[in-house]
Amino acid sequence: MQRREFLTKSSLVLGSSLLPLPVLLQAKSAQSAAVLPVKAGDWPALRQLFALSYDYIHLATFLLASHPKPVAEAIERHRHAFDVNPADYWHQHFMTIEGDIANTAAQYMGGRGEQIALTDSTTMGLAMVYSGLQLRPGDEILQTVHDHYSTDLSLQLRAERTGAKVRQVALYDKPAEVSVDQVVSRLKAAINAATKVVAVTWVHSSTGVKLPVRAIADMLAELNKQRDEADHILFCVDGVHGFGIEDVDVTTLGCDFFIAGTHKWLFGPRGTGVIWGSDKGWASCKAVIPSFSRSYDVWLGGSTQDQVPVGAHMTPGGFHSFEHRWALPEAFQLHLQLGKANVQQRIHQLNSQTKQGLQQIKGVTLHTPMAPELSSGMVCFDYKDMAADDVVKAMHAKGIIISSTPYRQSYARFAPSLINNEQEIEQTLAALRTV
Ligand SMILES: Cc1ncc(COP(=O)(O)O)c(C=O)c1O
Fold first, then answer.
1. Secretion signal: which residues (predicted)?
2. Which one of 25, 88, 239, 368 is least enclosed by Cβ atoms within 10 Å?
3. 145: CA distance to ligand 1 center in Å?
Protein backbone atom coordinates (compact mmCIF):
# COMPACT_ATOMS: atom_id res chain seq x y z
CA MET A 1 0.00 0.00 0.00
CA GLN A 2 1.44 3.32 -0.93
CA ARG A 3 0.84 6.67 0.75
CA ARG A 4 -1.27 7.98 -2.15
CA GLU A 5 -3.60 4.97 -2.03
CA PHE A 6 -4.09 5.39 1.68
CA LEU A 7 -4.55 9.10 1.51
CA THR A 8 -7.16 8.85 -1.20
CA LYS A 9 -9.21 6.34 0.77
CA SER A 10 -11.56 8.14 3.06
CA SER A 11 -10.89 5.97 6.08
CA LEU A 12 -8.59 3.34 7.44
CA VAL A 13 -11.51 0.92 7.72
CA LEU A 14 -11.83 0.99 3.97
CA GLY A 15 -8.10 0.44 3.58
CA SER A 16 -7.89 -2.33 6.14
CA SER A 17 -10.20 -4.64 4.21
CA LEU A 18 -7.43 -4.89 1.64
CA LEU A 19 -4.78 -5.93 4.10
CA PRO A 20 -3.54 -9.47 4.65
CA LEU A 21 -4.31 -11.20 7.95
CA PRO A 22 -0.89 -10.84 9.64
CA VAL A 23 -1.09 -7.06 9.21
CA LEU A 24 -4.58 -6.95 10.67
CA LEU A 25 -3.40 -8.94 13.66
CA GLN A 26 -0.53 -6.53 14.20
CA ALA A 27 -2.89 -3.60 13.90
CA LYS A 28 -4.52 -4.63 17.16
CA SER A 29 -1.23 -4.07 18.93
CA ALA A 30 -1.42 -0.32 18.27
CA GLN A 31 -4.40 -0.09 20.58
CA SER A 32 -3.74 0.66 24.22
CA ALA A 33 -4.22 -1.89 26.95
CA ALA A 34 -7.74 -1.56 28.36
CA VAL A 35 -6.91 -2.18 32.01
CA LEU A 36 -4.16 -0.27 33.75
CA PRO A 37 -2.67 -1.66 36.92
CA VAL A 38 -3.20 1.20 39.40
CA LYS A 39 -6.19 2.68 41.21
CA ALA A 40 -7.02 6.35 41.76
CA GLY A 41 -4.69 7.92 44.30
CA ASP A 42 -2.80 4.66 45.01
CA TRP A 43 0.70 6.20 45.24
CA PRO A 44 2.60 3.12 46.52
CA ALA A 45 1.14 1.09 43.63
CA LEU A 46 2.10 3.86 41.20
CA ARG A 47 5.72 3.82 42.46
CA GLN A 48 5.87 0.08 41.64
CA LEU A 49 5.20 0.87 37.98
CA PHE A 50 8.61 2.54 37.60
CA ALA A 51 11.99 0.90 37.08
CA LEU A 52 13.49 3.82 39.07
CA SER A 53 16.29 2.67 41.33
CA TYR A 54 15.49 2.32 45.04
CA ASP A 55 19.13 3.19 45.82
CA TYR A 56 18.26 6.87 45.71
CA ILE A 57 15.53 9.28 46.70
CA HIS A 58 14.56 10.87 43.40
CA LEU A 59 13.66 14.53 43.72
CA ALA A 60 14.44 15.58 40.15
CA THR A 61 12.29 13.16 38.14
CA PHE A 62 10.59 16.03 36.32
CA LEU A 63 13.74 16.66 34.29
CA LEU A 64 13.02 13.67 32.10
CA ALA A 65 10.44 10.99 32.85
CA SER A 66 11.17 7.42 33.73
CA HIS A 67 8.57 5.44 31.76
CA PRO A 68 5.88 3.84 33.93
CA LYS A 69 4.96 0.25 33.05
CA PRO A 70 1.94 0.95 30.80
CA VAL A 71 3.98 3.48 28.78
CA ALA A 72 7.05 1.22 28.61
CA GLU A 73 4.89 -1.71 27.47
CA ALA A 74 3.16 0.35 24.79
CA ILE A 75 6.54 1.54 23.49
CA GLU A 76 7.74 -2.05 23.35
CA ARG A 77 4.56 -3.16 21.55
CA HIS A 78 4.99 -0.50 18.87
CA ARG A 79 8.73 -1.01 18.61
CA HIS A 80 8.28 -4.72 18.04
CA ALA A 81 5.59 -4.23 15.41
CA PHE A 82 7.80 -1.71 13.59
CA ASP A 83 10.75 -4.07 13.72
CA VAL A 84 8.67 -6.94 12.36
CA ASN A 85 7.15 -4.99 9.48
CA PRO A 86 7.75 -1.22 9.49
CA ALA A 87 6.04 -0.33 6.21
CA ASP A 88 2.80 -2.21 6.90
CA TYR A 89 2.63 -1.11 10.52
CA TRP A 90 3.05 2.53 9.59
CA HIS A 91 0.62 2.37 6.67
CA GLN A 92 -1.90 0.62 8.87
CA HIS A 93 -1.98 3.43 11.43
CA PHE A 94 -0.66 6.73 10.16
CA MET A 95 -3.99 8.02 8.85
CA THR A 96 -5.76 7.85 12.18
CA ILE A 97 -3.36 7.34 15.06
CA GLU A 98 -2.18 10.93 15.57
CA GLY A 99 -5.80 12.13 15.58
CA ASP A 100 -6.59 9.47 18.20
CA ILE A 101 -3.60 10.59 20.29
CA ALA A 102 -4.73 14.22 20.06
CA ASN A 103 -8.24 13.16 21.14
CA THR A 104 -6.83 11.37 24.19
CA ALA A 105 -4.75 14.45 24.96
CA ALA A 106 -7.93 16.54 24.78
CA GLN A 107 -9.68 14.20 27.21
CA TYR A 108 -6.90 14.92 29.68
CA MET A 109 -6.14 18.60 29.04
CA GLY A 110 -9.38 19.95 27.61
CA GLY A 111 -10.07 21.48 24.21
CA ARG A 112 -10.75 19.55 21.03
CA GLY A 113 -8.39 17.01 19.54
CA GLU A 114 -8.16 18.95 16.30
CA GLN A 115 -6.75 21.95 18.21
CA ILE A 116 -3.80 19.89 19.49
CA ALA A 117 -0.48 19.45 17.67
CA LEU A 118 1.98 16.74 18.69
CA THR A 119 5.63 17.69 19.17
CA ASP A 120 8.83 16.11 20.42
CA SER A 121 9.36 18.49 23.36
CA THR A 122 8.39 21.76 24.98
CA THR A 123 11.29 23.36 23.14
CA MET A 124 10.01 22.19 19.76
CA GLY A 125 6.52 23.49 20.60
CA LEU A 126 7.82 26.89 21.72
CA ALA A 127 10.02 27.22 18.63
CA MET A 128 7.14 26.28 16.32
CA VAL A 129 4.72 28.77 17.84
CA TYR A 130 7.20 31.61 18.24
CA SER A 131 8.52 31.08 14.70
CA GLY A 132 5.07 30.74 13.15
CA LEU A 133 3.16 33.64 14.73
CA GLN A 134 2.19 36.22 12.14
CA LEU A 135 3.47 39.68 13.04
CA ARG A 136 3.51 42.96 11.16
CA PRO A 137 6.48 45.32 11.01
CA GLY A 138 6.73 47.21 14.30
CA ASP A 139 4.80 44.59 16.29
CA GLU A 140 6.40 43.59 19.55
CA ILE A 141 6.55 40.42 21.65
CA LEU A 142 6.61 40.95 25.40
CA GLN A 143 8.15 38.14 27.45
CA THR A 144 9.48 37.96 31.00
CA VAL A 145 12.92 37.70 32.58
CA HIS A 146 11.75 34.48 34.27
CA ASP A 147 11.39 32.36 31.15
CA HIS A 148 13.44 29.30 30.30
CA TYR A 149 16.27 29.29 27.76
CA SER A 150 13.91 27.60 25.26
CA THR A 151 11.49 30.56 25.25
CA ASP A 152 14.30 33.14 25.28
CA LEU A 153 16.11 31.55 22.35
CA SER A 154 12.95 30.84 20.32
CA LEU A 155 12.16 34.55 20.55
CA GLN A 156 15.74 35.70 20.06
CA LEU A 157 16.13 33.54 16.94
CA ARG A 158 12.82 34.82 15.62
CA ALA A 159 14.01 38.39 16.19
CA GLU A 160 17.30 37.71 14.39
CA ARG A 161 15.49 36.16 11.43
CA THR A 162 12.68 38.64 10.98
CA GLY A 163 13.59 41.77 12.91
CA ALA A 164 10.67 41.19 15.32
CA LYS A 165 11.02 43.24 18.48
CA VAL A 166 11.22 41.36 21.79
CA ARG A 167 11.14 43.02 25.21
CA GLN A 168 11.37 41.52 28.69
CA VAL A 169 9.67 42.48 31.94
CA ALA A 170 10.37 41.36 35.52
CA LEU A 171 7.11 40.29 37.18
CA TYR A 172 8.63 40.14 40.66
CA ASP A 173 11.93 40.81 42.42
CA LYS A 174 11.58 38.50 45.42
CA PRO A 175 9.89 35.29 44.31
CA ALA A 176 8.93 34.21 47.85
CA GLU A 177 6.93 37.45 48.22
CA VAL A 178 5.24 37.49 44.81
CA SER A 179 1.52 38.32 44.65
CA VAL A 180 -1.16 38.10 41.97
CA ASP A 181 -1.58 41.88 41.95
CA GLN A 182 2.13 42.46 41.55
CA VAL A 183 2.39 40.10 38.57
CA VAL A 184 -0.68 41.43 36.79
CA SER A 185 0.10 45.09 37.37
CA ARG A 186 3.75 44.82 36.32
CA LEU A 187 2.81 42.97 33.15
CA LYS A 188 0.02 45.43 32.35
CA ALA A 189 2.35 48.40 32.85
CA ALA A 190 4.86 46.88 30.39
CA ILE A 191 2.31 46.49 27.57
CA ASN A 192 2.22 49.21 24.94
CA ALA A 193 0.40 49.78 21.65
CA ALA A 194 2.97 47.72 19.72
CA THR A 195 2.63 44.66 21.99
CA LYS A 196 0.92 41.90 20.01
CA VAL A 197 2.15 38.80 21.83
CA VAL A 198 2.62 38.15 25.53
CA ALA A 199 4.83 35.12 26.23
CA VAL A 200 5.03 33.70 29.76
CA THR A 201 5.91 30.53 31.62
CA TRP A 202 3.28 29.01 33.92
CA VAL A 203 5.61 27.57 36.56
CA HIS A 204 9.09 29.09 36.61
CA SER A 205 11.76 26.43 36.79
CA SER A 206 14.04 29.24 38.01
CA THR A 207 12.13 30.02 41.23
CA GLY A 208 9.17 27.64 41.53
CA VAL A 209 6.72 30.55 41.16
CA LYS A 210 3.42 29.61 39.49
CA LEU A 211 1.96 32.55 37.58
CA PRO A 212 -1.73 33.42 37.92
CA VAL A 213 -2.38 32.70 34.24
CA ARG A 214 -6.15 33.20 34.46
CA ALA A 215 -5.76 36.63 36.12
CA ILE A 216 -3.26 37.64 33.40
CA ALA A 217 -5.68 36.44 30.71
CA ASP A 218 -8.50 38.50 32.25
CA MET A 219 -6.30 41.62 32.22
CA LEU A 220 -5.37 40.99 28.57
CA ALA A 221 -9.02 40.41 27.64
CA GLU A 222 -9.86 43.85 29.08
CA LEU A 223 -7.07 45.45 27.01
CA ASN A 224 -8.19 43.57 23.90
CA LYS A 225 -11.71 45.00 24.28
CA GLN A 226 -10.20 48.42 23.56
CA ARG A 227 -8.36 47.21 20.43
CA ASP A 228 -9.39 46.30 16.90
CA GLU A 229 -9.43 42.54 16.42
CA ALA A 230 -6.35 42.66 14.17
CA ASP A 231 -4.43 44.30 17.05
CA HIS A 232 -5.47 41.84 19.75
CA ILE A 233 -2.70 40.60 22.02
CA LEU A 234 -2.11 36.85 21.78
CA PHE A 235 -1.29 35.10 25.03
CA CYS A 236 1.20 32.20 24.90
CA VAL A 237 2.13 29.98 27.83
CA ASP A 238 4.97 27.54 28.33
CA GLY A 239 2.93 25.24 30.56
CA VAL A 240 5.34 22.36 31.01
CA HIS A 241 5.80 22.53 34.79
CA GLY A 242 2.13 22.77 35.67
CA PHE A 243 1.10 20.13 33.15
CA GLY A 244 0.69 16.77 34.88
CA ILE A 245 0.24 18.54 38.24
CA GLU A 246 -2.49 21.17 38.21
CA ASP A 247 -6.09 20.04 37.85
CA VAL A 248 -7.15 22.43 35.12
CA ASP A 249 -8.72 22.35 31.71
CA VAL A 250 -6.27 24.42 29.66
CA THR A 251 -9.09 26.08 27.75
CA THR A 252 -10.21 27.74 30.99
CA LEU A 253 -6.82 29.41 31.50
CA GLY A 254 -7.69 32.06 28.93
CA CYS A 255 -4.52 31.71 26.87
CA ASP A 256 -4.24 31.29 23.09
CA PHE A 257 -1.39 28.78 23.17
CA PHE A 258 -0.50 26.25 25.82
CA ILE A 259 2.77 24.48 25.08
CA ALA A 260 4.12 21.56 27.12
CA GLY A 261 6.40 18.58 26.97
CA THR A 262 4.69 15.37 28.06
CA HIS A 263 7.96 13.69 29.10
CA LYS A 264 8.26 15.44 32.44
CA TRP A 265 5.47 15.48 35.07
CA LEU A 266 3.08 13.53 32.89
CA PHE A 267 5.41 10.47 32.61
CA GLY A 268 4.91 10.34 28.84
CA PRO A 269 7.43 8.79 26.46
CA ARG A 270 10.72 10.68 26.26
CA GLY A 271 10.61 12.84 23.14
CA THR A 272 6.94 13.84 23.25
CA GLY A 273 4.95 17.02 23.80
CA VAL A 274 1.82 18.91 22.81
CA ILE A 275 0.67 22.35 21.71
CA TRP A 276 -2.94 23.35 22.35
CA GLY A 277 -4.03 26.45 20.45
CA SER A 278 -7.32 28.33 20.59
CA ASP A 279 -9.05 28.83 17.22
CA LYS A 280 -7.90 32.47 17.36
CA GLY A 281 -4.34 31.42 18.20
CA TRP A 282 -4.00 28.91 15.37
CA ALA A 283 -5.53 31.40 12.93
CA SER A 284 -2.51 33.64 13.65
CA CYS A 285 0.15 30.95 13.29
CA LYS A 286 1.75 29.41 10.20
CA ALA A 287 3.31 25.95 10.15
CA VAL A 288 7.09 25.86 10.14
CA ILE A 289 7.73 22.16 9.52
CA PRO A 290 5.62 20.29 6.92
CA SER A 291 3.27 17.83 8.61
CA PHE A 292 2.78 14.26 7.41
CA SER A 293 -0.96 14.66 7.97
CA ARG A 294 -3.64 15.02 5.35
CA SER A 295 -1.77 18.19 4.36
CA TYR A 296 0.33 15.79 2.28
CA ASP A 297 -2.82 14.97 0.34
CA VAL A 298 -3.46 18.69 -0.17
CA TRP A 299 -0.03 18.75 -1.82
CA LEU A 300 -0.96 15.70 -3.89
CA GLY A 301 -4.15 17.48 -4.98
CA GLY A 302 -6.65 15.17 -3.28
CA SER A 303 -7.85 17.48 -0.47
CA THR A 304 -8.13 21.14 0.37
CA GLN A 305 -6.43 22.71 3.39
CA ASP A 306 -9.72 23.46 5.15
CA GLN A 307 -10.31 19.69 5.33
CA VAL A 308 -7.20 19.22 7.48
CA PRO A 309 -7.54 19.70 11.26
CA VAL A 310 -5.26 22.55 12.26
CA GLY A 311 -3.51 20.55 15.00
CA ALA A 312 -2.63 17.83 12.46
CA HIS A 313 -1.35 20.46 10.04
CA MET A 314 0.83 21.99 12.79
CA THR A 315 2.25 18.62 13.89
CA PRO A 316 5.81 18.46 12.51
CA GLY A 317 6.14 15.75 9.95
CA GLY A 318 8.84 13.45 8.73
CA PHE A 319 9.16 10.01 10.24
CA HIS A 320 9.59 10.06 13.98
CA SER A 321 10.46 7.68 16.77
CA PHE A 322 6.84 6.58 16.41
CA GLU A 323 7.07 3.92 19.09
CA HIS A 324 7.41 6.79 21.59
CA ARG A 325 4.85 9.19 20.12
CA TRP A 326 2.26 6.46 19.70
CA ALA A 327 2.64 5.37 23.33
CA LEU A 328 1.61 8.82 24.62
CA PRO A 329 -2.09 7.93 25.21
CA GLU A 330 -1.05 5.49 27.94
CA ALA A 331 0.47 8.38 29.93
CA PHE A 332 -2.71 10.47 29.66
CA GLN A 333 -4.82 7.45 30.57
CA LEU A 334 -2.65 6.72 33.60
CA HIS A 335 -3.09 10.28 34.85
CA LEU A 336 -6.85 10.16 34.23
CA GLN A 337 -6.99 6.90 36.12
CA LEU A 338 -5.05 8.36 39.06
CA GLY A 339 -7.45 11.30 39.02
CA LYS A 340 -6.38 14.85 38.16
CA ALA A 341 -7.65 16.23 41.48
CA ASN A 342 -5.79 13.50 43.41
CA VAL A 343 -2.58 14.22 41.52
CA GLN A 344 -2.78 17.94 42.24
CA GLN A 345 -3.57 17.36 45.91
CA ARG A 346 -0.70 14.87 46.37
CA ILE A 347 2.02 16.93 44.68
CA HIS A 348 1.01 20.09 46.55
CA GLN A 349 0.89 18.14 49.82
CA LEU A 350 4.46 16.87 49.39
CA ASN A 351 5.69 20.29 48.28
CA SER A 352 4.07 21.99 51.27
CA GLN A 353 5.66 19.44 53.59
CA THR A 354 9.02 20.18 51.96
CA LYS A 355 8.66 23.95 52.28
CA GLN A 356 7.50 23.77 55.89
CA GLY A 357 10.46 21.54 56.71
CA LEU A 358 12.95 23.80 54.93
CA GLN A 359 11.65 26.80 56.88
CA GLN A 360 12.77 25.07 60.06
CA ILE A 361 16.33 24.51 58.87
CA LYS A 362 18.93 27.09 59.87
CA GLY A 363 20.76 28.49 56.87
CA VAL A 364 17.94 27.86 54.35
CA THR A 365 16.57 30.78 52.34
CA LEU A 366 13.38 29.66 50.63
CA HIS A 367 12.71 31.34 47.27
CA THR A 368 9.49 29.55 46.26
CA PRO A 369 6.26 31.01 47.68
CA MET A 370 4.53 28.99 50.42
CA ALA A 371 1.07 29.53 48.88
CA PRO A 372 -0.12 26.64 46.66
CA GLU A 373 -1.84 29.26 44.46
CA LEU A 374 1.58 30.69 43.58
CA SER A 375 3.66 27.52 43.50
CA SER A 376 3.44 24.00 42.18
CA GLY A 377 5.84 21.03 42.09
CA MET A 378 9.23 22.57 42.80
CA VAL A 379 10.92 24.18 45.77
CA CYS A 380 13.93 26.44 45.18
CA PHE A 381 16.24 27.52 47.96
CA ASP A 382 19.72 28.64 48.98
CA TYR A 383 21.60 26.86 51.73
CA LYS A 384 24.15 28.60 53.92
CA ASP A 385 26.61 30.22 51.53
CA MET A 386 26.93 27.12 49.35
CA ALA A 387 26.73 27.22 45.56
CA ALA A 388 23.61 25.39 44.32
CA ASP A 389 25.69 22.77 42.51
CA ASP A 390 27.60 22.02 45.71
CA VAL A 391 24.31 21.40 47.53
CA VAL A 392 23.33 19.03 44.68
CA LYS A 393 26.66 17.16 44.97
CA ALA A 394 26.47 16.93 48.76
CA MET A 395 22.92 15.56 48.62
CA HIS A 396 23.86 13.07 45.91
CA ALA A 397 26.60 11.74 48.16
CA LYS A 398 23.83 11.10 50.70
CA GLY A 399 21.72 9.17 48.16
CA ILE A 400 19.35 12.00 47.26
CA ILE A 401 19.06 13.25 43.69
CA ILE A 402 18.08 16.88 43.42
CA SER A 403 18.85 19.55 40.81
CA SER A 404 20.07 23.12 40.59
CA THR A 405 18.15 25.65 38.53
CA PRO A 406 19.84 26.11 35.12
CA TYR A 407 19.70 29.91 35.18
CA ARG A 408 22.24 32.70 35.74
CA GLN A 409 20.98 32.99 39.31
CA SER A 410 21.05 29.33 40.30
CA TYR A 411 19.25 27.83 43.32
CA ALA A 412 19.12 24.33 44.75
CA ARG A 413 15.80 22.67 43.86
CA PHE A 414 13.71 19.84 45.32
CA ALA A 415 10.87 18.59 43.12
CA PRO A 416 8.70 16.18 45.12
CA SER A 417 6.48 14.22 42.75
CA LEU A 418 4.01 11.34 42.68
CA ILE A 419 6.79 8.80 43.03
CA ASN A 420 7.88 10.24 46.41
CA ASN A 421 6.35 9.81 49.85
CA GLU A 422 6.25 11.66 53.18
CA GLN A 423 9.04 9.57 54.67
CA GLU A 424 11.38 10.38 51.79
CA ILE A 425 10.73 14.08 52.32
CA GLU A 426 11.62 13.76 56.02
CA GLN A 427 14.79 11.81 55.13
CA THR A 428 15.73 14.50 52.63
CA LEU A 429 15.26 17.31 55.14
CA ALA A 430 17.26 15.38 57.76
CA ALA A 431 20.07 14.81 55.24
CA LEU A 432 20.18 18.52 54.32
CA ARG A 433 20.63 19.41 58.00
CA THR A 434 23.86 17.40 58.02
CA VAL A 435 25.30 19.04 54.87
C1 LIG B 1 10.14 26.17 31.88
C2 LIG B 1 10.77 25.20 30.92
N3 LIG B 1 10.41 25.23 29.62
C4 LIG B 1 10.95 24.39 28.72
C5 LIG B 1 11.86 23.43 29.09
C6 LIG B 1 12.40 22.49 28.04
O7 LIG B 1 11.59 21.35 28.04
P8 LIG B 1 11.78 20.22 26.94
O9 LIG B 1 12.90 19.37 27.42
O10 LIG B 1 10.48 19.47 26.95
O11 LIG B 1 12.06 20.86 25.66
C12 LIG B 1 12.26 23.35 30.43
C13 LIG B 1 13.24 22.33 30.87
O14 LIG B 1 13.11 21.69 31.86
C15 LIG B 1 11.72 24.27 31.37
O16 LIG B 1 12.09 24.25 32.65
1. 1-25
2. 25
3. 15
